[in-house]
Write a structure and sequence with these properties.
Elements lengths: L1 H16 L3 E6 L2 E6 L5 H15 L8 H4 L2 H10 L6 H11 L24 H21 L5 H10 L2 H9 L5 H15 L7 E3 L3 H5 L4 E3 L7 H20 L11 E4 L2 E3 L2 E3 L1 E5 L5 E3 L4 E10 L13 E7 L4 E8 L10 E2 L4 E4 L11 E7 L5
Antiparallel strand pairs: 1-2, 3-4, 5-8, 6-7, 8-15, 9-14, 10-11, 10-13, 11-12, 12-15
Helix pairs in contact: 1-2, 4-6, 5-11, 6-7, 7-8, 7-11
Length: 366
């Protein structure tokens, strides 16, 4: 349904503008660049419509993107950035969802007109461009600022120079400032005009909007959210794992900034009482009623309610919180991927029925 809506929007734009406009993909939403000022009002209306159509950002990787994972891995190895494969896959998901030939929207980074590169060409350039950004960040002494590097894929390499010159690391406030006062301003948006861009990431960042012509200052957090899903959802799905809730479900709070703190997990909802499944085979290490972490574990201020912890191969522990009181598993029991380990509830510190799903390495202490 959502993919159909996107195709209709894109088809309508091309049919309406013909050769007088060029549609490009940037930062998870489409920016329409039109040659004449006579269509400025139409430009804004279309931009806002497309942004609204895409505001409910992808929460896991669709098949069109996963199809290209071996190619991404191949070229990531060539450019010695294999550890960035999850981010590269997330960039593709945001930029094209695998539905547009310029899969990674990388033509512009090669100095080419938008949508020039197609399929593997786009991937090669996208990987090369990210490798260039990583090397440049290392040269500037900010190579550990992974979010800044990701954001510069959307903003351009100048963002890294700007951050380094200020001696600062990426955050949502600096990203929004740069979007408004550097990118949008240089493009002629002199007043900081903006439009609504509402999803769990932008809402969690406390800034549910974008500046016209200012790129997507939420970009790094959108990518990080998706890489989290690749680690605990997408990658597990490819490697014999599944999602913790049966579709359809909604992500009610994403991975990343939330309410002034870091929410290192995702909140999902499929309805009160919905079965919760182990994402992969493992051993139940803890079953706790009214779990009340006081150390902000996984970015939660405390009060997980009824929670199950499962340890998987490699020392990965997945966490399923706010469950109903009926928990059909016990400590030390072995569970299979997809086995029901609880039911969606509203226990603990919760604003409504949902599952808090998190992941952590090594053991967990209360």
């Amino acid at each position: 349904m959502q993919d159909m809506l996107k195709r209709k929007v894109k088809k309508w734009i091309f049919a309406t503008l013909g050769i007088s406009g060029v549609l490009t993909v940037a930062g998870g939403f489409f920016i329409l660049m039109v040659a004449t000022s006579a269509v400025e009002n139409s430009q804004r209306a279309v931009m806002e419509m497309v942004a609204r159509a895409q505001a409910s950002e992808d929460n896991y990787f669709n098949s069109e993107v996963l199809y290209w994972q071996p190619v991404v891995e191949e070229w990531a190895e060539v450019y010695d950035i294999l550890d960035w494969v999850p981010e590269l896959m997330a960039i593709m998901q945001i930029e094209s969802r695998g539905l547009i030939p310029d899969l990674m929207n990388s033509s512009a980074s090669a100095g080419l007109p938008p949508n020039t590169l197609e399929y593997e060409e786009s991937i090669v350039q996208g990987v090369r461009h990210l490798a260039t950004l990583i090397n440049h960040a290392n040269t500037l002494g900010i190579g550990r600022d992974r979010l800044a590097i990701i954001q510069s894929y959307n903003f351009g390499i100048g963002y890294l120079d700007w951050l380094a010159s200020r001696g600062q690391t990426h955050d949502i406030y600096l990203s929004a400032y740069y979007s408004r006062n550097v990118i949008a301003l240089s493009g002629g948006n002199l007043t900081g005009e903006r439009f609504d861009y509402i999803n769990v990431i932008s809402t969690g960042n406390g800034k549910p909007f974008l500046y016209i012509g200012g790129g997507n200052f939420h970009y790094a957090y959108l990518v990080r959210h998706l890489t989290f899903m690749m680690h605990v959802g997408g990658a597990y799905m490819v490697d014999g794992g599944i999602l913790p809730l049966d579709p359809p479900f909604w992500i009610t709070s994403g991975f990343g900034p939330r309410w002034g703190s870091h929410h290192a997990g995702i909140d999902l909802s499929s309805g009160f009482g919905a079965p919760i499944r182990a994402v992969k085979a493992g051993r139940v290490t803890r079953v706790v009623n009214n779990f009340g972490s006081n150390d902000g574990f996984l970015g939660h201020p405390g009060g997980f309610g009824n929670v199950v912890f499962i340890e998987h191969d490699g020392g990965i522990v997945t966490v399923y919180a706010h469950l109903m009181s009926t928990v059909p598993v016990r400590v030390d029991s072995e569970v299979a991927a997809g086995q029901v380990i609880g039911f969606q509830g509203n226990s603990g510190n919760s604003t409504g029925s949902h599952l808090h799903f998190g992941m952590k390495r090594s053991s967990i202490t209360e």
